Amino acid sequence: MLETRIMKGILPAEKSPEQVAREFRRLVACGLEIRPAGAARRNPARLLAAGYTPKHAIRLFDATFYLANLREDQNFRYFVAYVIPEAESPAAYPRIFYKDSSLVWRSATHYIRTDAENWIGKGDVRVVALDGVEVLCSAEETTNLPFEIQAALDAASRRGGRVVRDERAVPLVLRRAPERRIEPYEDFAAPRRRARSDPRNRIHGGRPVAWFTRPKDPASLRFAPGFEPDFARGVVEESRSMSHLYGGEIRKLRILSRNRRIQYQFVAGPRQVWIVPPQALTTEVTSYGVRTLDVAADEDLFVPGYEYHYVDTSEDPPFLHSQIPAGFAGAASDVDPSRADASPWIERIPVIQRFRRVVLGRRGRRQTR
């Protein structure tokens, strides 16, 4: 059975970028192997020569995350990260850590790039019913990095000065997949399969901890007993950052469930509030920097403040792409018109209403970090 632990206060190591770079190069000189999955796999030293030398270090449990300075390409801002999953690991695994529209940092699993496709792999997959047809979809929450280091990643992203435009890193670091392959490769999937193979590890026996009893009714949300967020005594920590998309200061609050089996991350912007899919409290971290166990719950509970909602006029006839429950999309974002305000759905969810009343109402503007 996997160990669990409640950790807080994780921040980047108090070392200069030069100290972190020397530390990492010393580890490599002493035998630490760099094992990229992408084009640099035949010559891993190419990554350091290209300027992807770590400048920040974060430690969680037995894992260490070394990060180069923040960069950006046509898709997102990202770190080239080196994950050392265990203290005595002989290898560091280069990965791409990026922040998605829900403002959670993720670890990309692979990439597809063709004349018609430019896509980043979003973890494991599941079969879902869509209009009566079963389709294979990415379980994007499986790439979410531990909540415990989200604030540290935000802090590291603010260091290092001007963000450099860089289109080279993704092909060097990530494995290129054939068109239409959304499934991750075995180095991502196998550790998760092993963890699930022990029934004692499965959160709530693998059953959902939260669900809606009626479709398209946000008020019908229910939690399995004990798995509700504990707003009274379960707020572990809070961090703050800024978001252009959401128009100002962002507060991220990590909150334990009543039974202390899982943790939630609530995100509060100037106008919107939303929940990131919950995580276990297990200490096992893979070479992608993510946990091996999932927490099952209805994905409609975790719609971010802005979500995709647009008409694709390149199709005939034009097709509405939306990840907001039907009938609940608000105004389009001024920053990204392909995304709409999901508040008409989110603000009708009882746990969001209670969070606003109990946590935001009580804590006001007090800053805890």
How does the SSE layout of this entry go?
Layout: H1 17-29, E1 33-34, H2 45-49, E2 56-60, E3 63-67, E4 71-72, E5 77-84, E6 91-99, E7 105-107, E8 111-113, E9 118-120, E10 125-130, E11 133-138, H3 150-157, E12 164-165, H4 169-173, H5 186-197, E13 210-212, E14 221-223, E15 235-243, E16 248-256, E17 262-268, E18 273-280, E19 306-312, E20 319-322, E21 339-341, H6 343-346, H7 350-363
Parallel strand pairs: 1-6, 4-12
Antiparallel strand pairs: 2-3, 3-5, 4-5, 5-6, 6-7, 8-9, 10-11, 13-14, 15-16, 16-17, 17-18, 19-20, 19-21
Provide a brief overview of the structure.
By secondary structure, this protein is an alpha+beta fold. It contains seven helices and 21 strands. Strands 1, 2, 3, 4, 5, 6, 7 and 12 form an eight-stranded mixed β-sheet that branches. It has a four-stranded antiparallel β-sheet with strand order 15-16-17-18, with helices on one face. Strands 20-19-21 form a three-stranded antiparallel β-sheet, with no helix packed on it.
Describe this structure as you would to a colleague:
This protein is an alpha+beta fold and 369 residues long. Among the domains are: 17-191, no CATH class; 306-341, no CATH class. Helix content is 17%, strand content 29%. It has 7 helices and 21 strands. Strands 1, 2, 3, 4, 5, 6, 7 and 12 form an 8-stranded mixed sheet that branches. A 4-stranded antiparallel sheet has the order 15-16-17-18, with helices on one face. Strand 19 (306-312) and strand 20 form a beta hairpin. The chain is globular, with a radius of gyration of 20 Å. Residues 364-369 have low confidence and may be disordered.
